[in-house]
TrEMBL record:
Residues 8-393 form the Major facilitator superfamily (MFS) profile domain. It is a multi-pass membrane protein. Belongs to the major facilitator superfamily. Bcr/CmlA family. It comes from Sphingobacterium paucimobilis HER1398. This is Major facilitator superfamily (MFS) profile domain-containing protein. SUPFAM superfamilies: MFS general substrate transporter. Keywords: Cell membrane, Membrane, Transmembrane, Transmembrane helix, Transport. Coiled coil: none annotated. GO terms for cellular component: plasma membrane.
């Protein structure tokens, strides 16, 4: 590992957080944007879905590029795309253009997400990688705390256009740090073919690895519940419960703090338990919380306080699931960490796009669509963990498992 370890971890954390920050910061502006563009909330929610789709597709593109040309060159190109499209979002005047630009903005931001995961695999062995993912998750978890609050502050004093000005400025800071302070972790393989048949074969070899597909699907489906919350929370808290943008930002920050608590506890738990054991218990907890959400709806006991408590518990479990399933999914890959990271991210964001799209599609003016999707994702992830992987797995077993 390089001498400037803390600086490298900070930059990797910012690269991991650029996508989540871009998602969360404009959530308080949904209502205002819908009024400015004379459209409905569910149409504005589609701009969030477009972002998820862009991240899913973009990661598939960046994976082979990171393995062929090294980590930094494709990363810098992606950051440049992100900065450019963030600026263009400021000047958009209709919802269709915003949806298209958010898709392109996602294509740029996902370079940081793919590259940061690949670099962790370059630097660390699996168990240490899980601890490092927990550290990166700390930075990622801070973004849902800072981003909506910052977005709400800008909305109170300026307008929603300044949200994208802020995102563009953040992109500039990150690209400067990447160019001058982030060492190249992998020089690339000039023999790695970028022809479509070769790329498909490479992705297929990753996909059929039993460890990868099992833990990738478990983590991705569980995370899809989080994206359903991102899609529906703005309407529910601001419109249904009548809170202000500032109050929404504060609530969002509180529930997101669960991710920080969990990811830091995870680093300590890894000293006693395996990644598989921790994530399995967290899957059980998340499914129970999801079921409790639906029970409160059916028994008419759901109110704002209960909703906040349940979402806090849901995200607390997610903070244990994400770092462990990510580390286990990527553990078998070193030379092709870029492609493996890209496929992992594609499936995560692809399922996130599906879940957020379902929330928008079945929008009916109640909490039910969001809570039903969150519960379904948690329960499906738990079933996969119970039936697709052994109860206990060592690191060597994780590395050896293939179809």
């Amino acid at each position: 590992m390089h001498k400037n370890k803390k600086v490298i971890l900070l930059i990797l954390g910012l690269l991991s957080a650029i996508g989540p920050f871009s998602i969360d910061m404009y959530l308080p502006a949904f209502e205002t944007i819908s009024k400015d563009f004379n459209t409905s909330i569910d149409r504005v929610q589609l701009s969030l879905t477009a972002f998820f789709v862009g991240i899913a597709i973009g990661q598939i593109i960046y994976g082979p590029l990171l393995d062929r040309f090294g980590r930094k060159k494709p990363l810098i190109i992606g950051l440049f795309i992100y900065i450019t499209t963030s600026i263009l979002c400021v000047f958009t005047r209709d919802i269709e253009s915003l949806i298209a630009l958010r898709f392109l903005q996602a294509l740029g931001s996902c370079a940081g997400m793919v590259a940061s995961r690949a670099m962790v695999q370059d630097y660390y062995e699996p168990q240490e990688a899980a601890r490092t993912f927990s550290l990166l998750m700390l930075v990622v978890a801070i973004s849902p705390i800072l981003a909506p609050s910052a977005g709400a502050f800008l909305m109170e004093h300026l307008d929603w256009h300044y949200i994208f000005i802020t995102l563009a400025s953040l992109g500039v800071l990150i690209i400067i740090g990447t160019i001058f302070f982030l060492p190249e972790s992998y020089k690339g393989n000039p023999d790695f073919s970028l022809l479509p048949p070769a790329i498909i074969r490479q992705y297929w070899s990753v996909f059929i690895n039993r460890t990868f597909i099992s833990y990738c699907l478990i983590g991705s489906i569980a995370a899809a519940g989080l994206y359903a919350y991102l899609a529906g929370s703005s309407f529910i808290i601001q419109e249904l419960y009548g809170l202000s943008k500032k109050e929404y930002g504060l609530i969002f920050a509180f529930v997101a703090s669960a991710l920080i608590i969990a990811t830091q506890l995870n680093r300590q738990f890894l000293k006693r338990w395996s990644m598989s054991e921790i994530s399995r218990i967290a899957n059980c907890g998340q499914a129970l919380v999801g079921i409790a959400m639906l029970v409160t709806v059916w028994t008419h006991t759901l109110n704002l306080q209960v909703l906040i408590a349940l979402v806090f518990g849901y995200l607390l479990c997610q903070g244990f699931i994400f770092p462990n399933t990510s580390a286990m999914a990527l553990a078998p890959f070193k030379q092709t960490a870029g492609s493996a990271s890209a496929l992992l991210g594609c499936l995560q964001m692809g399922l996130g796009a599906v879940s957020s799209g379902i929330v928008s599609l079945f929008h009916n003016g109640t909490e039910v669509p969001m809570l039903l999707v969150m519960c379904s994702c948690a329960c499906i992830a738990l079933l996969l963990h119970l039936f697709a992987v052994p109860p206990r797995q060592s690191t060597s077993e994780i590395l050896e498992q293939t179809f």
